[in-house]
Amino acid sequence: MELLSTPRSIEINNITCDSFRISWAMDGGDLERVTHYFIDLNKKENKNSNKFKHRDVPTKLVAKAVPLPMTVRGHWFLSPRTEYSVAVQTAVKQSDGEYLVSGWSETVEFCTGDYAKEHLAQLQEKAELIAGRMLRFSVFYRNQHKEYFQHVRMHCGNVMKPSLKDNSGSHGSPTSGMLHGIFFSCNTEFNTGQPPQDSPYGRYRFQIPAQRLFSPNTNLYFADFYCMYTAYHYVVLVLAPKGSPGDHFCRERLPQLDISCNKFLTCCMEDGELVYHHAQDIILEVIYTEPIDLSLGVLGEISGHQLMSLSTADAKKDPSCKTCNISVGR
């Protein structure tokens, strides 16, 4: 039997967080003969791709020949925001069960995408299942070290400026490394209705009335749901003034929440004043997308401990947790 031509001119497009489309060129005579495609897919950080040790042993992914381009999909071997290399080989399955194979194509590299809105909507639905009842609150707060606030006062004109979100949480979150904002908390202790006196982020706390950040002129977005190998679960929300750059960024990428009716964080008018509630059974991380002057709130020192074990700075999500993972790339 004649040898097969080596696949060439590989093209990859329609890339998502857990799929891509691939096509290549091969000699016309091969089109009718080829019965299978072998696809060698490797994370870029592992340069040692597992080629065939013997030419009749299939590679990682085996597919029956279909018209090209073909879609490769699978959350069990594709992760979001991850660089991969891919090479292909064509084969003809012979009557004795052995394969006649082509040479390997050139290796092409690509990077998978972020979660799309539909993936985040699935995370949102899972988060809603454990959010719990709503508790009333009145302030957002931000803990940092004393040096942080000294720097804001001395070098930033007394204004806290948005910074780039780190890579904590779900690997596929479109906000990580992309959205600028200022992190706030709003959780309260159910028995006192006040913010806890402990924090993982520093002993100095800036508190600001909730209406300064959250009002009918603010849009609210769901950004992430994750845990860090603990029983605690975190939900990341974004508050963006309507029409702001942060609002435009989120509108294209994140599910928008009704500010007066959702399971996480609400703002409602009652008896002529705005009333605020947060979910009891999750830890909310709220990103506000605009600068904030310290004069709009109060700065003080907390009396509790600095619980470093609860810090989420660059925290990696537990990929095995059934509560906060979905069946796409993690």
TrEMBL record:
<dbReference type="InterPro" id="IPR036116">
    <property type="entry name" value="FN3_sf"/>
</dbReference>
<protein>
    <recommendedName>
        <fullName>Phytanoyl-CoA hydroxylase-interacting protein</fullName>
    </recommendedName>
</protein>
<comment type="subunit">
    <text>Interacts with PHYH and ADGRB1.</text>
</comment>
<dbReference type="Pfam" id="PF19281">
    <property type="entry name" value="PHYHIP_C"/>
</dbReference>
<comment type="function">
    <text>Its interaction with PHYH suggests a role in the development of the central system.</text>
</comment>
<dbReference type="GO" id="GO:0008104">
    <property type="term" value="P:intracellular protein localization"/>
</dbReference>
<dbReference type="GO" id="GO:0005737">
    <property type="term" value="C:cytoplasm"/>
</dbReference>
<dbReference type="InterPro" id="IPR013783">
    <property type="entry name" value="Ig-like_fold"/>
</dbReference>
<dbReference type="InterPro" id="IPR003961">
    <property type="entry name" value="FN3_dom"/>
</dbReference>
<feature type="domain" description="Phytanoyl-CoA hydroxylase-interacting protein-like C-terminal">
    <location>
        <begin position="111"/>
        <end position="330"/>
    </location>
</feature>
<comment type="similarity">
    <text>Belongs to the PHYHIP family.</text>
</comment>
<dbReference type="InterPro" id="IPR045545">
    <property type="entry name" value="PHYIP/PHIPL_C"/>
</dbReference>
<dbReference type="GO" id="GO:1990782">
    <property type="term" value="F:protein tyrosine kinase binding"/>
</dbReference>
<keyword id="KW-0325">Glycoprotein</keyword>
<dbReference type="InterPro" id="IPR042868">
    <property type="entry name" value="PHYHIP/PHYHIPL"/>
</dbReference>
